[in-house]
Structure formats: structure tokens, C-alpha cells
């Protein structure tokens, strides 16, 4: 059996991402943005406090100021 030689064409193949995946990514980023910016803008009262504390450490990890 002769040795096979890679031409490099089989190494890089384009990946086709479905449109629904792009749409879901945009919606997910929008939700993350709203969660990160939530400081009583969308919700108020106890719900805002719970949401703030739930996402508190993640906000700081991403560099979003909240204090």
C-alpha cells in the first residue's frame, strides 16, 4: 500500500451554520445583555433584587459594573 500524502484540502472544510442557529445566538446574546444591564430598568422590587443577586458574580466576571 503506498503512503498517503495529505494535500491540505481535506484539513479545512467550511462549516455551514443553519440560519436558526444564528437567530438563537442573537436572541441569547440579547437576553444576556438584558440580564447584565438589569439594575431595576426592566424589573423592580424583589424580582430585581433576586435577578441581580443571581447574576451578580457573572456580571463581575464579565467586567460589568453594578455597584
TrEMBL record:
It comes from the Bacteria. The keyword Transmembrane applies. InterPro entries: CbtB_put. The chain crosses the membrane at residues 15-36. This is CbtB-domain containing protein. Keywords: Membrane, Transmembrane, Transmembrane helix. The keyword Transmembrane helix applies. The lineage of its organism: Bacteria, Bacillati, Actinomycetota, Actinomycetes, Micromonosporales. It comes from Catenuloplanes atrovinosus.
